[in-house]
C-alpha cells in the first residue's frame, strides 16, 4: 500500500487547478522589443523572426499604437544608423532613429513606456558592443560613449534606459551622467547577467551587428557560470541599477531563480530572438503547438521569478491573455 497522500486530488478539475495555481502572470508582465531603422515607409520582415519587422519611425508609431491597444505596458527600442563608423557616433546623435522614434511616440501621447537599448554593436563597423583598439574591446573609453547614448535617449524623452553592452562600470557611468543632466528620476534596467549566447543569432542578422572579428566572450558571461552571473547582478545593484536582467531566458531559468533569492529588485528576463525563432520554426513545420509552447515558456520565465518578460511574442501572448 502506498502513502495516503494523493497528489492527483487537487488536479481533478479545472476549478481546483485554478485555485491552487502558483504562478499568475498577465499582459502587465510583458515588454515588446521593436527594431527601428532609417527611412520612411519601411516595414521589412526579418526572415528568421516571422512576424517581427524592421520599422522606420513612421511605422513604429503604428506598431506602438497596436501595443497600446493590447495594453502591453511598454516597448524596448533597438536602433540602426544610417551609416556605421568605427566609433558608432550615430548612436548618440540627436537625429538617430531611436531618438527620433522616442520623440515621435511621446508627441503622440501614447500611454506606453518607452525603454531604449544602449549599446554600440549596431552602430560600429566592427560590430562589437564597445570601442576597439588594436583588436581589443576597450572598457573605460566605451563608458563615456555609453553615457552619451543614455543621455541622448533621456533628452529625447525615454522612460527607461537599458544598457546591454556588458562593459564593467557602465551602470555607474550612466547613472552619474543622467543625474548630472537632471535625469535623476530616470530608471536603469541593466542587462546584468547577459550570457555569450548563440541564441542571439537572428537578432544579429536583423541588426547587422555580428562582430567583424572574434566574438563577445571577452565581455559577455560564459554560459557555464551561474555564480559569476550573480556577482554581475550584485555589482549592477551597487552601481545603481533599478531593474536587473537575465538574458537569454529559457536556458538560464536557474539564474533567474537564484537572482530572485539574492535581490528584492525587480528582475527582467529576455526571451531572445533564437528562443522565438525555435518556437516559430517548429510550429511552421507543425512539430509543436505554437500557442501552447509560447504560453508555457513565458509562464516558466514568470515562475522562475521574472516580473518583466521581454518577448517578441508579447502581442500574441497579450491576445490570448486578454480574451
Ligand atoms: C546588443 C544586444 C543583443 C541582443 C540585445 N542587445 C545581441 C548581442 O549581444 O549580440 C540580443 C537580443 C535577441 O537576440 O533577441 N548588445
Q: Care to count the β-strands?
A: 12
Portion in helices: 25-40%
| Uncertain spans | none
Gross CATH architecture: Alpha-Beta Barrel
Q: How far is it from the N-terminal to the C-terminal residue, by CA?
A: 46 Å
Classified in CATH, the superfamily is Aldolase class I
Mean pLDDT across every amino acid position = 96
- Computed over alpha carbons, the radius of gyration is 20 Å
Outline type: globular
Helix segment count? 11
Ligands bound here?
ligand PBG
The CATH topology annotation reads as TIM Barrel
- How are helices and strands ordered from N to C? HEEEHEHEEEHEHEHHEHEHHEH
Major beta sheet summary: 10 strands, mixed
Describe the structure.
A hairpin with a 2-residue loop joins strand 6 (131-133) and strand 7. This protein has helices at 14-20, 57-69, 97-107, 139-156, 170-180, 201-207, 226-239, 253-262, 273-284, 290-304, 314-321; strands spanning 30-36, 43-46, 49-55, 74-79, 113-118, 131-133, 136-138, 160-163, 189-194, 243-247, 267-271, 308-311. The N and C termini lie far apart (46 Å). The strands form 2 sheets. Strands 1, 2, 3, 4, 5, 8, 9, 10, 11 and 12 form a 10-stranded mixed β-sheet that branches. Strands 6-7 form a two-stranded antiparallel sheet. Helix 2 (57-69) packs across helix 3 (97-107) and helix 8 (253-262) runs parallel beside helix 10. It has 11 helices and 12 strands. The protein is globular and about 70 Å long. The chain has one domain (25-322): Alpha-Beta Barrel (TIM Barrel). The protein has 323 residues and is of the alpha/beta class. The structure holds ligand PBG. The site of ligand PBG has 13 residues, from helix 6.
Amino acid at each position: 500500500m502506498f502513502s495516503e497522500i494523493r497528489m492527483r486530488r487537487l488536479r481533478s478539475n479545472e476549478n481546483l487547478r485554478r485555485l491552487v495555481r502558483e504562478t499568475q502572470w498577465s499582459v502587465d508582465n510583458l515588454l515588446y522589443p521593436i527594431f527601428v531603422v532609417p527611412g520612411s515607409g519601411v516595414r521589412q520582415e526579418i526572415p528568421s523572426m516571422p512576424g517581427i519587422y524592421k520599422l522606420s519611425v513612421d511605422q513604429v508609431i503604428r506598431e506602438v499604437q497596436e501595443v497600446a491597444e493590447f495594453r502591453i505596458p511598454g516597448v524596448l527600442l533597438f536602433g540602426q544608423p544610417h551609416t556605421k563608423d568605427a566609433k558608432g557616433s550615430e548612436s548618440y546623435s540627436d537625429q538617430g532613429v531611436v531618438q527620433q522614434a522616442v520623440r515621435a511616440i511621446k508627441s503622440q501621447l501614447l500611454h506606453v513606456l518607452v525603454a531604449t537599448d544602449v549599446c554600440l554593436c549596431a552602430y560600429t563597423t566592427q560590430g562589437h558592443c564597445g570601442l576597439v583598439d588594436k583588436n581589443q574591446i576597450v572598457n573605460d573609453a566605451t563608458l563615456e560613449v555609453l553615457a552619451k547614448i543614455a543621455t541622448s535617449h533621456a533628452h529625447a524623452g525615454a522612460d527607461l534606459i537599458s544598457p546591454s553592452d556588458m562593459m564593467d562600470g557602465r551602470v555607474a557611468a550612466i547613472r552619474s551622467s543622467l543625474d548630472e543632466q537632471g535625469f535623476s528620476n530616470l530608471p536603469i534596467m541593466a542587462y546584468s547577467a547577459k550570457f555569450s549566447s548563440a541564441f542571439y543569432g537572428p537578432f544579429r542578422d536583423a541588426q547587422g551587428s555580428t562582430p567583424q572579428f572574434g566574438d563577445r566572450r571577452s565581455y559577455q558571461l560564459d554560459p557555464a557560470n551561474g555564480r559569476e552571473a550573480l556577482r554581475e547582478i550584485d555589482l549592477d545593484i551597487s552601481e545603481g541599477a533599478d531593474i536587473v536582467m537575465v538574458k537569454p531566458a529559457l536556458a538560464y531559468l536557474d539564474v533567474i531563480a537564484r537572482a530572485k533569492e539574492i535581490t528584492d529588485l525587480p528582475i527582467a528576463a529576455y526571451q531572445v530572438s533564437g528562443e522565438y525563432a525555435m518556437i516559430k520554426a517548429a510550429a511552421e513545420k507543425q512539430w509543436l503547438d505554437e500557442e501552447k509552447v509560447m504560453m508555457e515558456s513565458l509562464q516558466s520565465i514568470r515562475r522562475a521569478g521574472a516580473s518583466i518578460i521581454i518577448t517578441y511574442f508579447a502581442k500574441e501572448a497579450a491576445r490570448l491573455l486578454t480574451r
